[in-house]
Amino acid sequence: MVCRGIVHLSTLYPSGDEALLGLAGPSMPFGLPLTLIYPYQATALSDVDLRCLTIAEIEQSPTLAREVFHQLSRRLRQTEAMLAMVGCRRVEERLRQLLLLLQMEIGQPVAQGTRLSIRLTHQHLASAIGTTRVTVTRLLGQLRDEGRLLIDESRHIILPFGTTL
Q: What pTM, to 2 d.p., does this model score?
């Protein structure tokens, strides 16, 4: 279970390409007991503190069991949103849907809008939506030129208030 930070969950295709499975944030469980995917990778995207839990520990604590259930439900909603996103034909729409999902999952309010709390590379975004880094770079540039997103001084994405992607 993540206590602090953000963990990038992914798998590798036989071609060597990476596929995003989800993001685990504070209080979210992840790991091999919860997946059938192989290989399964967990990569810290920020400073991360983790806590290992056994099934016995969860079963012995109704409070912990409720929290795990709540966070598993959150991961299920995130997974369904990602499945819906992958079904979009146009790459531009997949990127917009991914940015909206990230806004909900890891967004933090700032004066200009909602800042994604971690820096994601263009390759991370490209892997998540099944396209190339070059395409993501071009699309992010278009969104920035249209005023639909900002990049702050530390290279974090900000989605301005009042704009639609």
A: 0.86
d(CA 19, CA 11): 5
Tally of domains in the chain: 2
**E strand map for 78-163:** 107-110, 113-116, 150-151, 157-160
* One domain for residues 45 and 114: no
Domain extent at residue 96: 91-165
Q: How many CB atoms lie within 10 A of CB 53?
A: 15
**Where among 55, 86, 117 does a domain terminate?**
86
DSSP 25: -
How far separated are the first and last CA of the chain, in Å rounded?
32
13: left (phi over 0), alpha (psi -120 to 50) or beta: beta
Q: In this structure, are 102 and 151 located in the same domain?
A: yes
Q: Return d(Cα 41, Cα 53) in angstroms, integer.
A: 18
| Contact (Cβ atoms closer than 8 angstroms) between residue 18 and residue 10 | yes
Task: State the pLDDT at residue 163.
Answer: 75
pLDDT band at 77 (very low <50, low <70, confident <90, very high): very high
Same domain assignment for residues 103 and 155? yes
Question: Are 130 and 145 in the same domain?
Answer: yes
Sign of CA dihedral 68, 103, 48, 4: negative
Two structure tokens written together for 164:
């639609």
